[in-house]
Amino acid sequence: MRELVKKDQLVTIVPQDFKNSNKGKVLEVDLKGFRMELKYKPEGLLKNHICDFYSLTDNGYLYFESYIQALENNVITIANPVKHRFLQRRKFTRIKFLEDIELSCGDITHKARTLDLSAGGMKLRTEENIDIEKEYKVSVKLSPEQVINCKYQLIRVEKGDNGIYTISGRFVNLSNVDKMTLVQFCMKKDMENLNK
Fold first, then answer.
1. What is the DSSP code (8-state) at residue 183?
2. What are phi and psi of 188, to 5 degrees?
């Protein structure tokens, strides 16, 4: 683990109930695991329960599952994971995601279809010419129970020869819970696709 996690590295911890996600800084690393100091009170984090861990490293986005061995105030001890993997060099995992969606700004609504999705934003395809200067409200339905409501800012609009517009954009003012929901959703889907 010493080659993967280093002192002062930032690590995000996501338990089964990701409303209790937390992040912290690595204090020390040894042969059995590592200790980290959490940024927030460790509510909902339980000893011996498997959690997801994410950290941006020089080699890409590190992902592994492990559990908390010890919990003392805001300092936790994490066991060495059995296995790990580097997901991608990009900051957020991007997955293929095909869903009908609506962008709204005031009384204007545009229909589009998503092409891909990450915790940073999404790519869309539409027949409508959309104003790149406006910020749009959008609801991204991940499942019947999980819907992300946020703002979407267009970054690039390209018009194809067929008259269809391809739009790249980013999410604006995502809450930490929504961001972690998207990170976890995309990483799990990415892993499912790799294991097919």
1. H
2. -65, -40
| Pair type for strands 121-126 and 135-141 | unpaired
Cβ–Cβ under 8 Å, residues 37 and 54:
no
Q: Read off the pLDDT of residues 64-111 as tens digits, 9 standing for 90 and up.
A: 888 999 999 999 999 988 776 655 445 677 889 999 999 999 999 999
Is 67 in contact with 48 (CB distance < 8 Å)?
Answer: yes
CA-CA distances (angstroms) from residue 63 to 24, 54, 85, 160, 176? 15, 5, 6, 37, 18
List, in order, residues 6 or more apart from 110 with CB less than 8 Å away.
Answer: 102, 103, 104, 126, 128, 130, 136
The answer, yes or no, to whether residue 135 has pLDDT greater than 60, is yes
Model confidence pTM above 0.85? no
* Cα distances (angstroms) measured from residue 116 to each of 51, 69, 138: 26, 37, 15
